[in-house]
Structures are given as C-alpha cells and as structure tokens.
Amino acid sequence: MKKADGQLTTGRESAEASRNIISAAKKICVITPYLHHDGSSLLLYRFLKWARSTRPQCRFDILYLSDGPVRQMLEKLENVDDVVYLKPKLHRIIHRFESHSHKKNIQKFIGKSDAVYCNTIVSLKWLENFLDPSTTKKHFLPPITVHVRELGYWLVKSGVTQRTFDSLPVTAIADSSLTAESLAGRFVISNCNVIDEYCDTE
After folding, report:
1. How would residue 18 be classed by pLDDT, with cut points 50, 70 and 90?
2. In sequence order, what E strands does 35-114 have?
3. Upper half-sphere CA count for residue 32 (Cβ side, 13 Å)
4. Taking the mean position of all CA atoms in its chain, how far away is CA 126?
5. Spatial CB neighbours of 199, under 8 Å, sequence gap ≥ 6
6. Which of 19, 24, 29 is nearest to 59 (CA)?
7. What are the φ and ψ backbone dihedral angles of 174, each rounded to 5 degrees?
8. Is residue 197's pLDDT more than 70?
9. Could you tell me the maximum CA-CA distance found in the chain, to the nearest angstrom?
10. Does residue 165 register a pLDDT over 60?
11. pLDDT at 9
C-alpha cells in the first residue's frame, strides 16, 4: 500500500501497525459482523489469543451483529470482558425506547474504550450508525482501526462512504494487496497498511 509520500509500506511496517492497535490501549471495543465459524470470526479469535499472550494488560469488549459458535470461544478468553449482541429485541409499542436505550448502551462501551477495532468494513458502518451525531467528531472519539477483508462488491454494499473516513479517526488495515487496491479505487484514505492473512477454517 502506498503511503502519503507515494512509498509502499513494508511487511515490517505493516506488522508494526497491527501491534500499534493495542500498544497503548488498555480497553478496546471490538465490533464484528457475525460470529460464525468462518474467516473473519476465526481471524478475530486468533488476534485476541495473540493479544492475550503479548499484551496481557489489554481488555476487550466484543460487540457483534449475528450470533454463532465463535461466541462461546470468545467468552472463554481471559482477556475478554463482555460479548454483547448489537441488535436489540424489538417489541411493537416500546421498540423505539428499546432501540434508544440500546444505542446509549453501545455508546457507553465505545466511550469507555481507549481504541475501537472494527473487524471488517461492514462493522465500521455499524459503528457510524450507533454514534451520536454530537460526538461524531475526531477529537471526541478514541482511535478507530478498521480491518478490511472485503473486495469491491461488499465495499459498496457496506454503505461506507468517503464521509465516513473523513469524519472519523480511522486507520485502515487491508488483508491483502488486492483488498488495498479495491480500497484505493473507492476511497481516499490517509493511513492504510497491508497485512496479508490466511485462515484455515477446517
């Protein structure tokens, strides 16, 4: 991936960028789209296990959109405090109140965090949706890292726009050079690194 000065990041620089996600943070809010037994969920689990052994001082709250078997795996990790469902249960008359209360609860998780880690670009859009417009200013929010694993189609379907990157304090990580090229073709991002990944889902 090219830096602002046109130079490409090296593998060592990219690995360092990954470490910096949690190097100074003690409390990190993770937003992930689902917890099925597949690539992004298993890569998140592997990342948290790595953090447990290399950054034992860091604690994590996991906010997810769709349940799955990886939830039980995450709940067993010693460095995970809470695993919380992002969508409230709606009940006809009181669904607006429940939605508002749930949104406030999510904002509390973000507000007490030193950093936010979005596991896929879809998660970044969900984060944007849950933020109070009055706090959607860079100096009010903790640093946000989005780990992009999607290509062109899902970059469009995610609903993320250039305004998202302009208004939020976002650093991007692409899981491959191809993903980075897709990102560069759609958005202008000042800070993006490539970290090649492979996850055996068998």
Report:
1. low
2. 59-64, 80-85
3. 29
4. 10
5. 39, 42, 43, 46
6. 29
7. -100, 140
8. no
9. 56
10. yes
11. 41
Q: What is the pLDDT of residue 32?
A: 94
Mean local confidence (pLDDT), 2-20: 45
Own/partner pairs, 70-73, CB within 8 angstroms, 24+ separation? 70/35, 70/36, 70/37, 70/41, 70/42, 70/44, 70/45, 71/35, 73/45
Model pLDDT, residue 3: 41
Q: Model's pTM, two decimal places? A: 0.80
Residue 148 exposed, middle or buried by CB count within 10 Å (0-12, 13-18, 19+): buried
Residue 37's SS3 state is coil
Amino acid symbol at 134:
S
Say whether pLDDT at 160 is over 70: yes
- Dihedral pair phi/psi, residue 98, rounded to 5°: -65, -40
Amino acid letter, residue 122: V
